[in-house]
Amino acid sequence: MKKLQETIHKYMKARNWDDLPPADIAKSVSIEAAELLEHFQWQNWSKEDIKKNKEKYEEIKAEIGDIVIYCAEMANILSFDLEIAANNKLKKAAKKYPAHLFKNNKDPHGTGVYEKIKKEYRKNKFKS
Ligand SMILES: [Mg+2]
Q1: pLDDT tens-digit readout, 62-99
Q2: What is the mean pLDDT of residues 4-24?
Q3: Are residues 29 and 83 in the same domain?
Q4: CA of 59 to the centre of ligand 1 (A)
Q5: pLDDT at residue 107 tops 90
Q6: CA 79 to centroid of ligand 1, rounded, Å
Q7: Which of 2, 29, 53, 112 is the most interior residue, by most CB within 10 Å?
């Protein structure tokens, strides 16, 4: 991931785009995420549907690429390693959502358990 951050930094620097305000990058991440979501606005594509539709597959890949680029640029501007940030977040999520509560859960994707944990977390977070 560090190599990708460096490649993106070079790309941005070559265009004098390497000093964008963090708010502009955050907005761009959200705009690109909306572009990804637009593909699903009136369609509930399954993964099989997407893989069968070459054009759709490429468009979705491109939007994911846009999102990753802006996330990496945010990491560059704020001087942190995106891979380390993602790994730290995964470790936190693993503690918050223990695998044993979700694995082989009859509830699709463990939605009920997820909602319960999330509700409890928010209740404790805003308690003071
Ligand atoms: Mg895009």
Answers
A1: 999 999 999 999 999 999 999 999 999 999 999 999 99
A2: 95
A3: yes
A4: 9
A5: no
A6: 24
A7: 29
The answer for residues whose C-beta is within 8 angstroms of residue 67's C-beta and 6 or more apart is 29, 32, 33, 36
Distance 89 CA to ligand 1 centre (A): 25
User: 9 C-alpha to center of ligand 1: Å?
Assistant: 19
Backbone angles phi, psi at 56, to 5 degrees: -60, -45
Give the Å distance between the CA of 66 and the centre of ligand 1. 5
Number of domains in the chain: 2
Cα of 48 to ligand 1 centre, how many Å?
22
Do 85 and 102 belong to one domain? no
| pLDDT at residue 66, as a whole number | 98
